[in-house]
Amino acid sequence: MESKPRPIVVVGAGVAGLTVALSVRHRPVVLLTRGERGRSGSTPWAQGGIAASWHPDDHPTTHAFDTLRAGSEANNSHAVELLTASARDAIEWLIRHGVSFDQERDGPALCLEGGHSHARILHARGDGSGREIVEALSTSASIAANVEWRENVDVDGLLLREHKACGVTLRTQEGAVEVIEADSVVLATGGLGALYQWTSNPPECDGSGLALGMLAGARTADLEFVQFHPTLLCPSGTDERSRLELISEAVRGAGATLVDETGFRFMEGIHPLRDLAPRDVVARSVWRVRQAGGQTYLDARVIGDAWPTRFPSIFRACQQRGIDPRGDLIPVVPAPHFHMGGLSVDLDSRTSVVDLYAVGEVACNGVHGANRLASNSLLEGVVFGRRLGALLDSDDWCNRSKQHCTATTTIVSADTLGQEHLLTLRQRVSEALGPEREHEAMQDLSEWLRSDERLAHSRQGNLVSEMLLSAMRRRRSIGAHFRSDAVNAGQYVATGQDVGEASLATTDIP
Length: 510
Description:
The protein has helices spanning 15-23, 60-70, 77-85, 87-96, 129-143, 208-215, 249-253, 279-291, 307-310, 312-320, 377-392, 395-401, 419-432, 439-451, 453-456, 459-473; strands spanning 8-11, 29-32, 50-51, 103-104, 107-108, 110-111, 121-122, 147-150, 153-161, 164-172, 177-181, 184-187, 220-221, 226-233, 257-260, 296-299, 330-339, 342-344, 356-358, 363-364, 409-413, 491-495, 504-508.
């Protein structure tokens, strides 16, 4: 009698996790999510769309060039080529799963966003692209016979057997602890913005999957590269939520400009693309105005009466704050939005731990380099999620999975911080690992973490410590990692290398 096949466990049900689950057709999949299906993680909040060289005048090589330029050419060029060459197929796959992209008379409506040389961003429901995509994929996964959903569970441990991943431990809302043995474990847990005081990410994006992978011994890469989005709706004095409403880059693509309290357009002279410069440049410029005591606003009155239909979610968020963007300036602040670093993976999403995979924002395959190009993240989740799903579904993988192991199982896990410690940690991370960094502040935070054993050995503390080490080792500014104490601190770094190697600075930031 044959034993029951062990499932593939996918942790996370955003665009990356859902795509993996749907791309495995012939093997059982257990899909685990912290929240409810279709509502968990960052994907439902994604206002920006998905990039693809769809127009006849555009080409994947041009999309690749823009991606490399935005990433300060610190990208893995093979990953970039794979991403951009697969973009059209990814869009067509999403359409087959029921995603309805906004249309014009001659095809999909293509928008322009920062860092792109062509209008190549496909949107759905205006500024509701992420919600449309995750709802369509969730519907497909809900009816897939081989996919078992588990909602409202927190994965807090990984099972290792002979240094191979072989399952997870999870905790239910009721506090029950369960063990799920698996043939392979896929981490698709998103980013770590919730480790900061303010972020565009929901609370569950706290780096938990990244931290667990590290505890299991998986190598990491580029942990210091945290992208700050320049335009999040400034919190009110009474707002205690960590997640701020995002004002999509597409608003600037539609003609909105950044101004200070005097009406001065402060991106003039900063970068040739002004308000549509790469996000690291714009975010630092907004941050500097505010650090100098100024106020920062998005002047989007040019959109006029089209606001309610073109950007309905943002329009509602502004109205809830008593702001009418058709006639009012929108107060904005920069905040963490996307993590380019993560668990180091190859182009098949393999980590350095056998049978442990990572895909989406938790992973680092080098496709984004030092700074993500707008609207490449949803695309990354689909392209590499499909590739991983096909690998796990292959005949070779199915035959290998039948080889059961009888070695002792080890569970790797770490305690999570209580609310009081977490609030302090988030404040200090925001100060030391913000849009601009300097050694003394990072060293102070590192010493503070080491001074408290509970902090140092917690899931969050361990992750932040590794981020600090990566940030302090990279002494030159590059992309989203900007060292105010570096020799090139006053410059916009277009390309660059690691510690001790030269960086090319092309445009000064006053």
